[in-house]
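Look over this record before class:
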Amino acid sequence: MRLLPTSIAAIIVVSSSSMPVQANSDQLAANICNYVQTNDKNRLRKKLKENRVKLRNIYSAVTCDGNSLLRTAMKNGSDKVGTFIAKRLAVSELTAAEADGKTITDWAEANGHGASAITAAIKKRTAGS
């Protein structure tokens, strides 16, 4: 008798939770991009904490208009958010080549962001490795 209601409840939970996962992750990515563009570090931290997500786990999967989060921060002058992101990522992630084959520091130097606070934070993190 208990098997039927339990299995029905399990099916409902599985089917309802599997569909919104994509919508939730898309909304999370959109929110993260918005907070990076507007230099809102506090709301970014809050959103990551609410969703129980670590920045280093999602960094490579989230792009804003085809750019990584650090590149988006540099383009928008979002120094607070950019330095926050640089401090949260692994050094291997900061030194890895991105989709275009350039590292974040190479890209920053080539695009006039070499003197930004974000680039300084990245260089400080990578110099210690």
Remarks:
- The mean pLDDT is 86.
- DSSP finds nine helices and no strands in the chain.
